[in-house]
Amino acid sequence: VRPGTRSSFASAAALFSRYETIDAEGRVMERETENTDEHPGMCLLLTRAANDVRYREGLQHYEGVEFMKRFKARYHVAHSQQVTWRYRKHGASKSAVQTPEREAVRRELAS
What we know:
Structural class: alpha+beta
Helix content: 25-40%
Largest sheet: 4 strands, mixed
Strand content: 25-35%
Distance between the termini: 24 Å
Order of helices and strands: EEEHHEH
Number of strands: 4
Shape: flat
C-alpha cells in the first residue's frame, strides 16, 4: 500500500474513524459521519510518526490540513467504520468564520 492510501490497521500510522457531530450544548446533530477530512485532531496517530512530521511553525490557519498532507506522503493511514468520538461545533471555533486570511491559506494548501 502506498503512503497516503487506505490500508490495514496494522500497517497504519494514523487511524481515522467515524464520528458524531454535536452542538455547543452536546446535542447530536449528525450521526456516523465518515471522516473524509482526515484532520489530525480527529484520529489516532503513532507518536513517532507525528514527531517525525511535526506541525509547521508559524502557520496560523489550516495547520492540520498542511500537516496531514505531508503526513500522508510519508505514512499509511487507515479508516474504521466504527464511531469512536464526537466533534463539537460552536460559533467561537477558529473555523466557524472564513476570513480572507484563512481563505488565502486554504487556496495555497489546495495547490
